Amino acid sequence: METAIITGASKGLGAGLAKLFLESGINVVGISRTDNAHLYAYAKENSANYSYVACDLSEKASIQTAMESLDETLFKDNSVSKVYLINNAGLVDPIDRAENIEMDDLMKQVHVNTVAPMILTNHFLKKASENNVQLITAIVTSGAALKPKYGWSVYCSTKASMNMYTQTVAIEQAEQGTEHAIIAFSPGVMDTGMQKTIRSSSEGAFKDVESFRALKDNNQLKNADIVGGVLIDILMDEHLENGKIYDVREYI
After folding, report:
1. pLDDT tens digits, residue range 26-52?
2. Which runs of E-coded beta strand occur in 73-152?
3. Which member of 50, 155, 165, 246 is catalytic?
4. Which site in 107, 128, 219, 250 is 20 to 30 Å from 61, CA atoms measured?
């Protein structure tokens, strides 16, 4: 049996990925603050199982509780052969110049975008090895990891750090000779709630806001389900390149 753990599975790219895994007969566990009721029916239609673990990824205690629940579900009877961990959840706000960002807001964004994916990946690397289960991890990154943007000091920094984390963990797993693999995936600009947040910014806080509004006005935002299909194909490719930073623009 194979299972996919997806953070931020209630909407956007996460929900699209959940549906695609379920279509492939792979069970899905969604981790987010809110549930998506439609996924239960979708799972039943595809003879798979969807379950939900409530978690606030900005809170250490909440992550710990979620991991304990997942450990009990996944590893108690040795029925799982492979786990896909999709670190999809992320925050783009606060969007503002660095000197205007409050400490609590900064810490929340860093925790969700960087600390939580590291905690989850580290934990499931260990648990997968202990239970002889293969772990395939994907971290959703961004082109902002490579290009600084006025108003995105935190977002750009968190995504850049996840690219380096991905490459470093891949080196470690290769050196140990495990079957585990980790990649990062840059999905480009999609028609999601995050884009709404970006478009609502003021030009004083985010210099490129008009270009993002134009993407929406000109129907240039990618469909999240199509982007999710690209990531699924990458993850299931037998030639998956451990440590690679994949970009959706290479495919669509």
Report:
1. 999 999 999 999 999 999 999 999 999
2. 82-87, 134-140
3. 155
4. 128
